[in-house]
Amino acid sequence: MRKKILAYNRVEKPVLERLQKKYDVQFFKNVDTNTDTEFLDFLQEAEGAIGLELPVDRQLLEHAPNLKIISNVSVGYNNLDLDALKEKNVMATNTPGVLTNTVADTAFGILVAAARRIPELDYYVKEGKWDVEAVGPELFGTNVHHKTLGIIGMGRIGNAIAQRGHFGFDMDILYHSRSSKPEAEKQFNAKYCNLDKLLEASDFVCMITPLTKQTEGMIGKEEFKRMKKSAIFVNASRGKTVVEEDLIEALKQGEIAAAALDVFEQEPIDSDNPLLQMSNVVTTPHIGSSTVETELKMSELAADNLEAGLNGEKPPNLIDASVWDNKG
Ligand code: GLV
């Protein structure tokens, strides 16, 4: 009998077709994973799961007695309860590497968009408001080049953002991370800072740390107060690394100048969220890695991980290697 694979939310079509040749694959989108009976019935039988942001906790695993591997089509894995997975001996994988430059492009794109007010000025032109040849200072932005970029989370993507800032925009790079990164210091002249120092000295503060128990709510009221009044805050990590209420307040009070956000506390964002009323806030719908090329690569890598796990091989991107070691 063909193994059953549960596919969830986002797996690119050619990759779904590849899996369908070998497995009994069922695709689910936007289901309530606690109540959708068709989903839960299929999960009972599934040996593998692949997709984007499937929330996996103890309760869900009760419905998954045959599950061997869950393969995230994302580098982030805050959707997974790793302790619960380990207890049940279920492997979990992610897709690092293939999206690094794409996410860095997004972070830099929204950073520049906020600094130069590009979305706001795009509306201005399209709404027919451009009626004098030379627009006045009320529409001027601020420079990106030669400013100070503070990066919080100096992993692969943080590194790629530093590369863009240093080589592309002649920026001074500050970073805050769990450990110091001598390579980034050598390559980009990046300087390690404690968080307070980074917040005080940066013109752009860019959040790109994974969401963990330690980073949840890492940037809140106090942190926004420390930033320059002219600072532009960029979040391309996860919405919950920031206290969104405090961000809104900081923007309202003029404690920072602007924000560029790809991620939000709640996704999709509520249409009445005050952030959406602010012309100095640039928003994108969590598209950090969402290019045609990169989404395909992520799905392919996730499928490779899944198939390895199903075939009894160690998946290349196993998140918690101790689950494999436990298998003996
Ligand atoms: C995107 O947000 C990812 O984690 O891959």
Our Rg estimate from Cα atoms comes to 22 Å
Uncertain residue segments: none
CATH topology of the largest domain: Rossmann fold
The largest sheet has its strands arranged as 8-7-6-9-10-11-12
Give the structure's gist in a few sentences:
Helix content is 37%, strand content 15%.
Give your account of this protein's structure.
With 328 residues, the protein is of the alpha/beta class. The chain has two domains: 4-96 and 293-327, Rossmann fold, CATH 3.40.50; 100-283, NAD(P)-binding Rossmann-like Domain (Rossmann fold), CATH 3.40.50. Helices cover 37% and strands 15% of the residues. The chain contains 13 helices and twelve strands. The strands form two sheets. A seven-stranded parallel β-sheet has the order 8-7-6-9-10-11-12, with helices on both faces. Strands 2-1-3-4-5 form a five-stranded parallel β-sheet, with helices on both faces. β6, α7 (156-169) and β7 form a beta-alpha-beta unit. α5 (100-115) crosses α7 (156-169). The protein starts with a strand and ends with a helix. The relative contact order is 0.14. Glyoxylic acid binds at residues 74-76, 99, 288-289.
Architecture blueprint of SSEs:
Layout: E1 4-8, H1 13-22, E2 24-28, H2 37-45, E3 48-51, H3 58-61, E4 69-72, H4 82-87, E5 91-93, H5 100-115, H6 118-126, E6 148-152, H7 156-169, E7 172-176, H8 182-188, E8 191-192, H9 195-201, E9 204-207, H10 221-226, E10 232-235, H11 244-252, E11 258-261, E12 281-283, H12 292-310, H13 321-326
Parallel strand pairs: 1-2, 1-3, 3-4, 4-5, 6-7, 6-9, 7-8, 9-10, 10-11, 11-12
Helix pairs in contact: 5-7
The structure holds glyoxylic acid.
Residues 74-76, 99, 288-289 line the site of glyoxylic acid.
